[in-house]
Specification:
Elements: E1 6-7, H1 11-20, E2 23-29, H2 34-50, E3 56-62, H3 67-72, E4 80-85, E5 88-94, H4 98-114, E6 136-137, E7 148-150, E8 184-185, E9 192-210, E10 224-231, H5 239-244, E11 249-252, E12 263-267, E13 276-286, E14 294-295, E15 297-303
Parallel strand pairs: 1-3, 2-3
Antiparallel strand pairs: 2-4, 4-5, 6-15, 7-9, 8-14, 9-12, 9-13, 9-15, 10-11, 10-13
Helix pairs in contact: 2-4
């Protein structure tokens, strides 16, 4: 609840936020605008008190630096506040009008209270870890039908559960878990190989991995310990190919990297992930001596770009 407004630096960043948050409040301003400066403290206060991950996001857009966004939404007076619901403009406030802005916010308070946890990828109120300022959850850019997971146990959940926005059942306080497994686990050993294509060309900034193996069980799986990432592959690799190929980034996750939600927040070498069409996550080994490894959720943080044809990422058939 303490997050302030996000400063927008590109149209792609703004588009990503519109996709990942149900409600977006945008403040169009300019550094030379006196009324903009007068109402800025009020807007900052509202942002800090009402921001909700995946539900309500406040942003500030410098109209001089982002003239393409201002032009797209016909912003001709400053300040202008636009309220977006599900990516579309729902309300407009022109000028520094504190009373009108507060009135709109009062409606937001009621709506925020009615927003529950979502069930689609990239949405929902469950927050596994902090999202770096200036970026957004772009998990909903994953093309689920093109994902492929190798070495998954037969009785684990389908690969799509990794991108579910709801809280993992393993975190339920009453100790009851869903009868349908909402996690994936390796089968033969402690390795997993996951191919993730995207609906658009994205910029990846952070990878969030949630792993919640049961405590105290004799044959409990391990959390991921060593992970290799590969980008822009048209299809999945096999394990021998992954072992023989230099990764885009190699990651070692230590015990202290996991937070109370069982989530490791992994910063990526952003310069290497600027134009990403697909990513392969190779869990090379678990963090202990267990024979298997488990992942409950994945979140991808960054910027989303324009949609593209997914046919270019269709997997090659066995007969080709």
């Amino acid at each position: 609840m303490s997050q302030g407004p996000v400063s927008i630096s590109s149209k792609e960043q703004f588009t990503g936020i519109l996709k990942s948050s149900k409600i977006v409040v945008a403040d169009f301003y300019a550094d030379w605008c006196g009324p903009c400066k007068q109402i800025a403290p009020l807007y900052e206060t509202l942002a800090k008190s009402l921001s909700r991950p995946g539900a309500v996001t406040f942003v500030k857009i410098n109209s001089d630096n982002n003239s393409d966004i201002a032009s797209e939404y016909s912003v001709s007076a400053l300040p202008t506040f636009l309220v977006f619901r599900d990516g579309k403009v729902d309300e407009t406030i022109r000028g520094a009008n504190p009373a009108q802005l507060k009135k709109v916010v009062e409606k937001l308070v009621t709506e925020v209270g009615s927003l529950g946890e979502g069930s689609g990828s990239g949405g929902g109120d469950w927050k596994p870890a902090e999202i770096p300022k200036g970026y957004s959850d772009i998990t909903d850019e994953v093309e689920l039908r093109g994902c492929e997971l190798l070495n998954a146990a037969d009785d684990a959940g389908p690969v799509k559960v990794l991108f579910d926005s709801s809280k993992p059942s393993a975190l339920n306080r009453d100790g009851n878990t869903s009868p349908k497994k909402d996690f994936v686990q390796s089968g033969a050993d402690d390795q997993l190989l996951l191919f993730i294509p995207f609906q658009s060309v994205v910029k990846l900034h952070t990878l969030q991995i949630t792993s919640l193996p049961p405590q105290g069980e004799e044959d409990a799986p391990a959390r991921p310990g060593v992970i290799h990432l590969y980008i822009n592959r048209p299809q999945n690799m096999d394990f021998s190919e992954a072992d023989d190929t230099e990764p885009t980034q190699a990651i070692e996750i230590n015990a202290g990297d996991w937070n109370s939600n069982g989530t490791a927040n992994i910063p990526l070498r952003f310069v290497k992930f600027q134009k990403t069409t697909s990513v392969i996550i190779y869990v090379q080994k678990g963090d202990g001596e267990a024979e298997t490894v488990r992942i409950d959720r994945l979140r991808l943080i960054g910027d989303a770009g324009a949609k593209r044809e997914m046919g270019k990422l269709q997997k090659v058939g066995e007969d080709e």
